[in-house]
Write a structure and sequence with these properties.
The complex is a heterodimer of chains A (293) and B (411).
Chain A: H1 2-37, H2 52-58, H3 61-94, H4 97-102, H5 108-111, H6 114-125, H7 130-137, H8 157-179, H9 184-192, H10 197-226, H11 229-234, H12 242-252, H13 258-292
Chain B: H1 2-19, H2 39-46, E1 50-55, H3 60-78, E2 81-86, H4 89-101, E3 111-114, H5 116-124, H6 137-142, E4 150-151, E5 154-155, E6 161-167, E7 169-173, H7 184-193, H8 206-219, H9 232-249, H10 264-273, E8 278-281, H11 286-293, E9 300-303, E10 309-317, H12 325-335, H13 338-345, H14 363-370, H15 381-384, E11 388-389, H16 394-409
Parallel strand pairs in B: 1-2, 1-3, 10-11
Antiparallel strand pairs in B: 3-10, 4-5, 6-10, 7-8, 7-9
Helix pairs in contact in B: 2-12, 8-9, 9-16
């Protein structure tokens, strides 16, 4: 038994150059956030009780509106990215080798920062943007303002567009990594036995891709749930995204409200952890049932 | 197994210990040794040093003025190197808070450009050095002490040196709009007659929040009642009048009030593109600056409402852990000098109004200010002074920004 312990300690020691910064910065940050949300170590002495900030937030209906809205935007854009990414990756994979190389352009949005993608969406989709003037030039609409009001529809369409644009190539990348190792003969066999294209995709290809689909969905979903840059450019005033709400509380309001900002961050962090646990549990259970069948 | 667990727990606790704030709660610093020196001695001490000035960096013309005029004059007159660091006030306040919590005695910031809520936050958290402004000869000589007693109703107590004055104005393009409203009531009617052509930046944006305060003053019977400080009962009785006014115009706003411009730069873009007919700014020369830059057409003019136009003073302050407090004092003193204020007042440089009391200057200097041509878009100090009303104490401001969200945005 003792050699195992020695091995673990050794391993921890060997990993420490990587682990320490991670632990200090990440765990330390989370620790301070939780403390400040309870009114400990706040810049100004906290007057009320420890959980006052949580009470304030949870009694505010606009918080739940923002929470639900952020959730919706994240869900739609993550699901959209994964679906589009999978479909495109599958199609690219089926292309002849020459064309497949050309299809590498899909990686371009990957290297663009989120904020640039936000501006791309803004420039293309606003009512005075490129698509509107194109439609006007082509005579599809009589005046620029007849172009659908995509960015200010109240549904967060601008953000969903930007996140999907950015997320699709990411999902493609993960899916492609699995596809290149996929044995084509399985598909050929299925086709010979008379399976339709759809059936091949859903029964043979999809189950192999599941790990990539799940991990890309979790990453994209949680990122768009909490990220700040795209909402900063594209979000509307109502309902606001949670990240913008936190930013305003943190930077633009009285210091006495610091615990509220930190409490929202803590709630978001707890939600992310619970989501990951619940998601993986459900996925494992589903896969077990499938295997039993 | 137990060893492993201990190891893990230790690793988890370690960062918490490291990030623990080390110092006690806020307390203001007094009896600074530097403040017992004469200003000549302070100037001597500052010679050959570097001053880092953290300031809002979103205005290219202001940045250029600091980098050229101020930097070269500081070098020539006092042998001080000036380094401008662009940073929003809310961000450098948080930087200082972290440094204070970490017990960092020597920071990186020497001078701040600050006022209002940020000053209040900084003072309450004990982030500022002072009182120093009474030690600056040009403040004593050129500034009316009554004009710098309060900053948004919070006592200045010498922790800030005045730097400039701003007043709220509306903007319109004479080529597109013939007549503009002259009172808040007319403004409401104008908005209803021109649906979709008006909006204001979303509070807590500085400019949008100021617009809301104008309406608050106008529909509740003037600013005087609020000057005595925070009165929750008064606020509770008066605020609904404001929400009614704002909610009445909401359906006639840009995007039917579904969404608001995030900040004043966004509103400027809408105004420049012609999506809205009225712009607004807390800086009287803003329109002229935009014309000089080519962002606005030359036909843009500014106007104020007879109900009042809020003005404020903006200041410079020195952090508690400024590495070069002597240099920062020399810079703060230079900024309020006649030469610097005059150069700042020129519209091609910035056009920011002087924080000096012109009556205290000798006639020759006063004449230099009076001969400056502010440009066709900017109202003169004589036009602005009669409608000038002071800023509201900070607790009202905080309450208005918070409740605007509840009663107008989320309604």
């Amino acid at each position: 038994m003792s050699w195992i312990n020695k091995g673990t300690t050794g391993l921890i020691l060997k990993l420490s150059p990587l682990m320490l910064p991670y632990l200090v910065l990440f765990c330390g940050g989370v620790f301070l956030t939780v403390c400040q949300s309870a009114g400990i170590f706040t810049p100004l002495p906290h007057a009320g009780r420890a959980l006052d900030a949580y009470g304030l937030i949870l009694s505010d209906p606009s918080f739940f509106a923002s929470f639900g809205f952020s959730l919706g935007v994240a869900l739609i854009s993550a699901a959209g990215s994964v679906i589009a990414g999978t479909f495109l990756a599958y199609r690219v994979w089926q292309l002849p080798a020459k064309l497949a190389n050309a299809a590498l352009v899909y990686k371009i949005p990957l290297i663009l920062p989120h904020i640039s993608v936000a501006f791309v969406v803004l420039i293309f989709w606003s009512q005075s943007g490129i698509l509107a003037s194109l439609a006007h030039q082509l005579g599809l609409i009589q005046a620029m303002h007849q172009f659908p009001n995509v960015l200010y529809s109240g549904w967060g369409l601008g953000m969903i567009l930007a996140y999907t644009l950015k997320g699709t190539p990411f999902a493609m990348l993960l899916v492609m990594a699995l596809l290149v190792r996929f044995d084509v003969r399985q598909i050929q066999t299925a086709a010979m036995l008379g399976a339709s294209g759809l059936r091949i995709f859903f029964t043979i290809v999809m189950p192999r891709l599941a790990p990539a689909l799940h991990s890309s969905f979790i990453i994209l979903f949680l990122y768009s749930f909490g990220a700040f840059d795209i909402p900063f450019v594209l979000s509307e005033s109502r309902p606001g995204m949670l990240s913008i709400h936190v930013y305003n509380l943190y930077f633009k309001h009285d210091l006495a409200r610091r615990p509220e900002a930190m409490a929202i961050l803590t709630i978001m962090f707890c939600f992310a952890v619970i989501f990951i646990i619940a998601y993986t549990k459900i996925v494992t259970r589903l896969e077990n049932t499938v295997r039993k069948l | 197994m137990i060893k492993k667990l201990t190891c893990l727990i230790f690793l988890l606790i370690l960062p918490c210990l490291i990030t623990l704030p080390s110092s006690a709660p806020a307390q203001s610093i007094s009896n600074e040794p530097l403040l017992t020196l004469s200003f000549e001695q302070i100037q001597k001490q500052a010679r050959g040093t570097l001053v880092r000035w953290y300031m809002y960096g979103g205005w290219a013309h202001v940045n250029a003025w600091v980098d050229t005029y101020v930097a070269s004059e500081m070098k020539r007159r006092y042998d001080i190197d000036l380094k401008r660091v662009p940073m929003d006030a809310g961000v450098f306040i948080n930087k200082l808070l972290t440094e204070k919590a970490a017990g960092k005695k020597k920071g990186t910031i020497d001078l701040l450009w600050i006022n209002g809520e940020n000053f209040k936050n900084a003072r309450e958290a004990g982030l500022l050095f002072g009182p120093f402004s009474g030690r600056l000869p040009r403040v004593r000589q050129n500034v009316d002490p009554d004009s710098i007693t309060y900053d948004f109703g919070y006592p200045v107590d010498g922790y800030e040196a005045p730097y400039g004055k701003a007043q709220f104005v509306f903007e319109y393009d004479t080529a597109r709009t013939d007549t503009v409203p002259t009172t808040i009531d007319e403004l409401k009617q104008w908005i209803k007659n021109n649906p979709g052509r008006f909006t204001y930046p979303q509070p807590p944006d500085f400019t949008g929040s100021a617009f809301v305060r104008h309406v608050f003053y106008a529909v509740t019977g003037g600013h005087e009642q609020y000057m005595a400080g925070w009165d929750p009962d008064l606020y509770k009785t008066n605020a609904p009048l404001l929400w009614d006014w704002l909610n009445e115009i909401t359906p006639f706003l840009w995007q039917k009030g579904q969404t608001y411009p995030r900040d004043s730069a966004f509103l400027d873009t809408l105004f420049a593109r012609g999506e809205v007919a009225l712009g607004m700014s807390y800086h009287p020369p803003h329109a002229q600056n935009m014309i000089i830059q080519g962002s606005y057409p030359g036909t843009v003019k500014t106007f104020v409402l007879d109900d009042g136009s809020i003005f404020n003073t903006h200041f410079t302050a020195i952090p508690f852990n400024a590495p070069n407090q002597a240099g920062a004092m020399v810079l703060a003193d230079f900024l309020i000098s006649v030469d610097a204020q005059l150069s700042k007042f020129r519209p091609e440089n910035w056009g920011d109004f002087p924080a000096l009391d012109l009556d205290r200057l000798d006639p020759a200097d006063r004449g230099r200010f009076n001969t400056i041509d502010l440009g066709p878009a900017t109202l003169t100090p004589e036009q602005l002074a009669p409608v000038a009303v002071p800023e509201i104490p900070a607790p009202y401001l905080e309450a208005l920004e918070q409740d605007w969200k509840t009663h107008v945005l989320d309604k």
